[in-house]
Every structure is written in C-alpha cells, then in structure tokens.
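Entry 14. Structure prediction run on the chain below.
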Amino acid sequence: MLAFVLSATVLLFVLIWFVMTRLTGPLRRLALAADRLGRGEDVPELPVAGPTEVRDLTVSFNRMQERLTRFVNDRTRMLAALGHDLRPPLTAMRVRADMVHDDETRDSIVASVEEMQGMVEATLTFARGLTGSEPPERVNLREYLGAALYQTRSAEVDLLGPDDTELRLRPNAMRRALPNLIENALRYGPPAQPD
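Output returned:
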C-alpha cells in the first residue's frame, strides 16, 4: 500500500510539473519578449505553444509587434524623407543670407539657418539610428563615457557614483547623442560648468 501511495504521489508530481512547465514556459518567453520589445530590441516572432489561452496571447503579441514595427518603420521613413527634403532650401537660404549687406541681420539669419540645419541633421541621425541594426551592449558606464567623450573632444564630465555601474545601450547611437546632451547641459543646466 505504501509503495502504491509513493508511486502515485511521484506520478502526480511529475504530471503537475509537466502541466506547469507547459503553461509557464510560454508565459516566461512571452514576458521576456515583451521586456525586450519595450527596450527597443529586435524580437523574433514567438512560437505559438501551450494551452489555448496562452497560444491566443502569443498570437496577439506577435501581431502587436508586427504592427509596432511597421508603425516605427513608416515614421522613420517619413522623418528621413522630411530631413532630406529640407536640406536644399536651407542651403539656398544660407547662400542668400551671405548676400545681405547688414552684418547684424546677416549674422542673425545665418545663425538661424545653421540651427535649423543642426535640427535636420539630428532628425536624419535619429532616423538612421532607428533603422540601424546596432545591437544593444552591456557597458561599464564610467569607461564608456571616458572613451566616448575623449573621441568627441567634449567637455570633461565628472561622474558621481560607483565605478562598476553597467548599462545596456547602443554604443554608436549614444556616442552621436553625447555632444548634444553635453551642450544642452552646459546651456540649460545651472550646475553644469564648462571645463
């Protein structure tokens, strides 16, 4: 009798483990994929498996991801086209501004045109960054900032905090954004001081 109860208990535990694995495995994959998608990473289509409700949820997630990807790609193409279309008129404005005889007016127009050109370039860089396939990497924040700021010849930055702070980021995209970030901090952040 004792052997029968023990074997029935073991069989019951194996059956419960199998059912729970069949249910929790797809849910765990779905949770990880949702987290990666939320961070902007490329997520392959999830295999449809598990009970009916979990399969339905997985199919809905795959459709949502496909729609989001299409939406982002459409907006990215629109940004890139807008940026390219704005370049020629800005160049023409810059040439015409040089023909203005009043120095103060000319300098004001040139500064405005250069600011708009900077915005267009930032938009194009952003669009290229969205369409690029640079994978995120885990980096040591202090080492990464030191190397990136040295390469961009930006101001020296003091980083407060532990030396072993790590982040997941796209290194090249972040390196492009750092000069603007530092310039904005120096311009609008009261505690920021140029070196």
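The longest strand covers residues 137-140.
Filed with the rest of this week's runs.
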